[in-house]
């Protein structure tokens, strides 16, 4: 299978760099996959699980904020936060959810309240997915 160069970058470090077969990205407009030869594209990220597929299997990362850019040189994701799932602290994520709840309650104006509510829903969705993954539960 064809590969594409991929870099996942956070403010603290280069999280991942290498040739991959596919990356599944939690985009603000919906999840999208990137394979070799993908058309140029720029998209915003939402909090979620990013999956990197390579010959050695799949790796999963929590990402929050930032954007993805696909161009002829490959895929680059600049994320406000990016860490392997095994490094993710569920207690810290729970605190982010609590902070987001407070942001919803404190929001003035419809736009601000809607943005805060969407951010809260995204974080809750990630927390629930991680809980399902941790407990082995499935949803159908």
Ends: how far apart?
31 Å
Count of alpha and pi helical runs? 2
Percent strand: 35-45%
Please state the structural category: alpha+beta
Listing every helix as H and every strand as E from the N terminus to the C terminus, the arrangement reads EEEEEEEEHH
Helix content: 25-40%
Structural shape = globular
Largest sheet: 8 strands, mixed
The total strand number stands at: 8
Radius of gyration: 16 Å
Q: What is the average per-residue confidence, as pLDDT, rounded to a whole number?
A: 89
Low-confidence stretches: none
Word description of this protein:
The protein has 140 residues and is of the alpha+beta class. Helix content is 31%, strand content 44%. The protein has 2 helices and 8 strands; from the N terminus they run E-E-E-E-E-E-E-E-H-H. It has helices at 90-106, 110-135; strands spanning 4-9, 14-20, 22-27, 30-34, 41-44, 48-54, 57-71, 74-84. Strands 1, 2, 3, 4, 5, 6, 7 and 8 form an 8-stranded mixed beta sheet that branches. Strand 7 (57-71) and strand 8 (74-84) form a beta hairpin. Helix 1 (90-106) runs antiparallel to helix 2 (110-135). The protein is globular and about 50 Å long.
């Amino acid at each position: 299978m064809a590969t594409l160069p991929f870099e996942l970058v956070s403010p603290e470090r280069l999280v991942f760099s290498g040739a991959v077969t596919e990356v599944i990205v939690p985009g603000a407009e919906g999840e999208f996959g990137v394979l070799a030869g993908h058309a140029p594209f720029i998209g915003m990220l939402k909090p979620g699980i990013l999956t990197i597929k390579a010959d050695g299997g799949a790796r999963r990362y929590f990402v929050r904020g930032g954007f993805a850019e696909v161009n002829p040189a490959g895929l680059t994701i600049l994320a406000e936060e990016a860490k392997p799932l095994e490094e993710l602290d569920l207690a810290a994520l729970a605190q982010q959810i609590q902070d987001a709840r407070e942001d919803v309650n404190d929001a003035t104006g419809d736009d601000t309240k809607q943005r805060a509510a969407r951010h809260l829903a995204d974080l809750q969705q990630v927390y629930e997915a991680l809980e399902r993954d941790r407990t082995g539960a499935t949803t159908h």
